[in-house]
Design goal:
Chain B: InterPro entries: 57_glycoside_trans_central (IPR037090), BE_C (IPR015293), Branching_enz_MT3115-like (IPR040042), Glyco_hydro/deAcase_b/a-brl (IPR011330), Glyco_hydro_38_N_sf (IPR027291), Glyco_hydro_57/38_cen_sf (IPR028995), Glyco_hydro_57_N (IPR004300). Chain B: It comes from Thermosyntropha lipolytica DSM 11003. Chain B: This is 1,4-alpha-glucan branching enzyme. The complex is a heterodimer of chains A (393) and B (514). By secondary structure, chain A is of the alpha/beta class. Chain A folds into 2 domains: 2-185 and 369-392, Rossmann fold (3-Layer(aba) Sandwich); 189-367, Rossmann fold. Chain A contains 14 helices and 14 strands. Chain A has helices at residues 18-31, 70-91, 106-115, 128-131, 138-153, 162-172, 222-235, 250-259, 274-283, 298-305, 316-321, 336-348, 350-367, 370-392; strands at residues 2-6, 35-41, 49-52, 55-60, 97-101, 120-123, 156-159, 179-181, 208-213, 239-244, 266-270, 284-289, 310-313, 329-331. In chain A, strand 13, helix 11 (316-321) and strand 14 form a beta-alpha-beta unit. In chain A, helix 1 (18-31) crosses helix 14 and helix 3 (106-115) runs parallel beside helix 5. Chain B is an alpha/beta fold. Chain B folds into 2 domains: 2-390, Glycoside hydrolase 38, N terminal domain (7-stranded beta/alpha barrel, Alpha-Beta Barrel), CATH 3.20.110; 412-507, immunoglobulin/albumin-binding domain-like (Up-down Bundle). Chain B is 50% helix and 7% strand. Chain B contains 16 helices and 9 strands. Chain B has helices at 21-44, 57-64, 66-92, 96-119, 124-134, 154-172, 190-196, 206-210, 257-264, 308-335, 359-372, 412-429, 436-452, 455-463, 467-489, 495-507, and strands at residues 2-6, 51-55, 137-142, 178-180, 201-204, 243-245, 251-254, 345-348, 389-390. Chain B has a 9-stranded mixed β-sheet. The longest helix of chain B has 28 residues, at 308-335. Chain B is globular, with a radius of gyration of 23 Å. Chain B starts with a strand and ends in a 7-residue tail after the last helix. Classes of the chains: A alpha/beta (393), B alpha/beta (514). The interface between A and B is medium-sized, with 27 and 27 residues.
Chain lengths: 393, 514
């Protein structure tokens, strides 16, 4: 079975969690006996074609540039992706399935599947409506329309959580049962490698490090986290908050830290590379992701797989991953006092922390392993093919 | 001179509803057939009112298609049934006014079907041909897929004009004399291609000749950014007369701004009158329209019921008003020295009947009124060789007066793709394929390339109207083109390819005279 995968993110070009998802899904699909061809935008210092872990990767078009007209760039990329798909299709004797990730590759996915009469599978990772808590301008309405048509035209829609399944179902009028839920996953192996040189200097030996990683945007709840943390330091003097990641909200967050007089207690690390991430988790006592909107919440799994106890906002996919008091703690991030209490509890109650860590590790291994996810995905491919063939015969 | 520009993009087998074939069927039922019927009626009554019509090759191809003819009849039957069901439904709930309108629709679709099948023999092109031969109309040629020529590269523009002419000859049996530039889009140099193919005249918007502020007609919703509206230098020339283009042996005819605005303008054009049928509100059960404009500023749920008799009366009043405007314009022109001023009104044909339901009635009354007042309607072929020369501006009748509607930040990438595809096409036509299939494949590549070039996709993207359909079509034709080019280049025109190719030929089945 030969699958053509369209994704606008793929390592090293990573914007959100999509790149990591497609990277892991592809290489684990190989182990399921699926032949995977990924078409993705060019990235600096990358060859136009690579075979990585058995995955065929084609990089086409121009690399994503800041300041460029984004829609123009993405549509141009779609056109180049189609060109590459046509060539590869010819070279390998025909694809069996097209798999498109999110609206950014919608036209490539729809066109190639339609013109080559191939079944189209699409994973909707997030929606424009969800990301913006509504649709407020022309661009957002347009993207919503593209997402809708992608979902409606696909032979099978996949979402990463029941939360997203609900959202896609209500937004685009697709029956819930017709949307397949396959969770996102984490590969423990990727969290073992630590930085070789220049040891990580942020986290001190005696500290109780609280970690947040993610984009600095309002929906991630970092503002609430900082406010709650000002209560935490009063009870746990050794606590220190590390905020990793970039985003438009950073300046406002820094002002809030200054206002609360927490400059010594809160560190903005900026962007954190993979190995540094592994180290910061290794030294952390607690990870907190108090999101207000979260289609899946891969960060929670990453913390869990590194044996870091987690506190998450009781929303979206996060709420499905974490079982309160069993694999982590859940709070409504808007309730600052409760968020603070939860942090204090986990930083002081070692028995509880241990229990949560142990359960979390088990759950990640059983449910969120890429082996299981790739297997479910391959099953979806087979089912879609079976149905399509039946229709033709 | 009345010039009606008729165009529907290629929609055959490219989706039915809400976007696709139904666009063509609506134009046929609501505009083309009623208009032709009206022209014939005037002709038979001896009212001499010849009309200039341009018909895009994509439209002609579809009108010629057997599949379209059959589907159109099915469409009309379905409309009849829906109107009848509406009528019964409205009677059953005591809505007498609505029931009357439903009955009008029922009769309308029945009449259209009778006209089409019996009187016109399901063959509008033959009728058009016959009417042209009688001198009742003159048909202009236009670009093959209605590409926006000013932004297109020289070679593609040449193909568009060449095939536009070729398809015209195929369906109408004579050489076209005049050319309609899609969207009145002109750039310096296009006349050379027109001359190369023997065209005698073409049309531009008024500011192309007179200068000043362009009309800037616009009907779409929210634009991402305001276009720059250029004010053209005042030239002192006038659209009241035809000109010979400076140093070129071709005549240019300018659209009259005033008479165009009188009909088109959103603010004070006739179609916005409160009595006319509201285009945007339809009865959900049938899709038919039962409301009147009422008040343009009011939302759709505040519209009142339509009254066909009142609307017809109003259309006639407007027709009389229009002719009085014409007379006034003529006497103004005469005061400044134009003894026999030429007034050219150019409109999209589909405005009459489809967008402006009463437009056909209005137009017929205008023509009668013109005859009554001893004004003369002329065809471009009657115009004497112009004595004056003019240089004209790069321009169009779109918003901003130039190329903005088709060439802007939102569409720039589409032009890049077209440029790339052009290059690729150049490569493949030089490859010898040595088989009948190979030749067909190369022809199809050109068809796909031309379909990508349709101005419609650009218009829809800029104005955010049925944008997804436009992008889908753009990408689909491009995908087909790429696969064909790939097969030709790699010498893979084999059995597997042929099977796929047969489907493409079936779907994009136009311009078979290539």
């Amino acid at each position: 079975m030969k699958v053509l995968m369209f994704s606008w993110e793929y390592p090293p070009h990573m914007v959100g969690g999509l790149g990591q998802h497609v990277f892991d899904l592809s290489r684990f699909l190989i182990k399921q006996g699926v032949e995977v061809h990924v078409i993705t935008p060019s990235a600096p210092d990358c060859l136009p074609y690579q075979n990585e872990n058995g995955v065929h990767i084609y990089r086409v078009g121009k690399p994503a540039l800041e300041g460029e007209h984004f829609k123009s760039w993405i549509f141009s990329f779609n056109s180049e992706a189609i060109r590459a798909a046509v060539c590869v299709n010819d070279q390998i004797g025909g694809f069996d399935i097209v798999h498109a990730h999110d609206w950014l590759v919608a036209y490539a996915g729809r066109s190639v599947s339609k013109i080559f009469s191939l079944p189209l599978v699409t994973t909707i990772h997030a929606t424009e409506h969800g990301r913006n808590l509504g649709l407020h301008n022309r661009m957002q309405l347009e993207i919503n329309e593209i997402e809708k048509n992608l979902a409606l035209e696909a032979d099978q829609v996949i979402c990463c959580s029941r939360y997203m399944q609900n959202e896609v179902s209500t937004l685009f009028g697709i029956k819930k049962e017709a949307i397949y839920v396959i969770p996102n996953g984490v590969d423990p192996e990727l969290f073992k490698k630590l930085p070789s040189t220049s040891p990580y200097s942020y986290v001190g030996e005696n500290e109780k490090a609280v970690v947040f990683l993610g984009r600095l945007v309002p929906e991630k709840g970092v503002m609430q986290l900082i406010q709650a943390f000002s209560q935490v330091v009063k009870k746990v003097p050794l606590a220190r908050l590390y905020i990793g990641g970039r985003g438009p909200q950073r300046e406002i967050l820094e002002k809030e830290v200054a206002r609360l007089g927490l400059e010594e207690k809160v560190v903005f690390t900026g962007f954190i590379g993979l190995e540094d991430r592994n180290l910061i988790y290794k030294r952390a006592s607690l990870a907190v992701f108090p999101s207000l909107y979260e289609p899946f919440g891969i960060v929670a799994l990453e913390a869990m797989v590194t044996d870091t106890p987690v506190i998450v906002g009781n929303v979206g996919g996060l709420a499905e991953i974490v079982e309160d008091g069993v694999t982590g703690l859940k709070v409504n991030a808007l309730e600052i006092d409760k968020l603070a209490d939860a942090m204090v509890r986990l930083l002081t109650d070692e028995l509880l922390a241990e229990k949560l860590k142990r359960n979390a590790r088990e759950k990640v291994k059983n449910v969120y392993s890429w082996e299981a996810i790739a297997k479910s995905t391959a099953d979806v491919y087979r089912e879609v093919l079976r149905v399509k063939q039946k229709v033709i015969c | 001179m009345l010039v009606l520009h008729s165009h529907i993009p290629y929609v055959k087998r490219q989706g039915r509803w809400p976007f696709g074939e139904v666009w063509l069927f609506e134009a046929m039922a609501e505009t083309y057939i009623p208009l032709l019927r009206s022209f014939l009626r005037l002709y038979e009554e001896g009212v001499r009112a010849p009309v200039t019509i341009s018909m895009s090759p994509t439209l002609m191809e579809q009108l010629h298609s057997k599949y379209i003819k059959n589907e159109f009849i099915n469409y009309l039957k379905a409309c009849e049934v829906r109107a009848l069901e509406d009528e019964r439904y409205f009677i059953s709930c005591g809505e007498k006014k609505l029931a009357e309108t439903a009955a009008i629709y029922h009769r309308f679709y029945k009449d259209v079907r009778r006209d089409f099948v019996i009187d016109f023999n399901s063959d509008l092109l033959s009728l058009v041909k016959e009417m042209q031969n009688k001198g009742c109309i003159e048909v202009l040629a236009t670009a093959a897929t209605h590409a926006y020529l000013p932004v297109l590269d020289e070679k593609s523009a040449d193909w568009q004009i060449f095939y536009g002419q070729k398809i015209y000859k195929k369906f109408l049996g004579v050489e076209p004399r005049g050319f309609w530039l899609p969207e009145c889009g002109y750039r310096r140099g296009l006349e050379d291609i027109l001359l190369k193919y023997g065209f005698k005249y073409f049309f531009v918007d008024s500011h192309a000749i007179e200068g000043g502020k362009p009309l800037g007609v616009f009907s779409g919703d929210m634009l991402e950014e305001e276009p720059e509206i250029e004010t053209f230098a005042i030239t002192g020339l006038s659209t009241y007369r035809p000109y010979k283009l400076k140093d070129k042996d071709i005549t240019v005819l300018g659209r009259n701004a005033l008479v165009s605005r009188q009909v088109w303008s959103a603010e004070f054009g006739y179609p916005g009158d409160e009595n006319y049928r509201e285009f945007h509100k339809h009865f959900p059960k049938s899709g038919l329209k039962y409301w009147r404009v009422t008040d343009r500023s009011k939302p759709l749920d505040k519209k009142e019921y339509y009254d066909a008799h009142k609307a017809e009366k109003k259309a006639k009043e407007h027709a009389h008003h229009f002719v009085s405007v014409l007379q006034r314009t003529i006497s103004e022109a005469q005061k400044i020295g134009f003894n026999r001023p030429l007034i050219i009104g150019c409109y999209d044909t589909e405005l009459f009947g489809h967008w402006w339901w009463e437009g056909v009635t209005w137009l017929e009354e205008v023509m009668r009124e013109i005859a009554r007042h001893n004004l003369t309607m002329v065809l471009p072929c009657h115009i004497e060789a112009p004595r004056y020369e003019a240089e004209i501006f790069d321009s169009s009748w779109g918003m901003g007066g130039k190329h903005y509607v088709w060439q802007n930040k939102e569409t720039e990438w589409m032009w890049q793709i077209i440029a790339k595809a052009n290059q690729e096409y150049e490569e493949i036509i030089n490859i010898t394929t040595r088989s009948e299939l190979g030749e067909r494949v190369k022809k199809q590549a050109l068809k796909e390339l031309m379909l990508i070039q349709s101005s419609d996709w650009f218009f829809m993207v800029t104005n955010n109207l049925t944008k997804d359909y436009a992008l889908k079509r753009f990408f689909e034709h491009y995908t087909k083109f790429l696969r064909i080019a790939d097969a030709v280049k790699n010498n893979k025109v084999d059995a597997g390819f042929a099977e796929w190719f047969a489907k493409v030929e079936y779907e994009d089945d136009l311009f078979n005279s290539f």
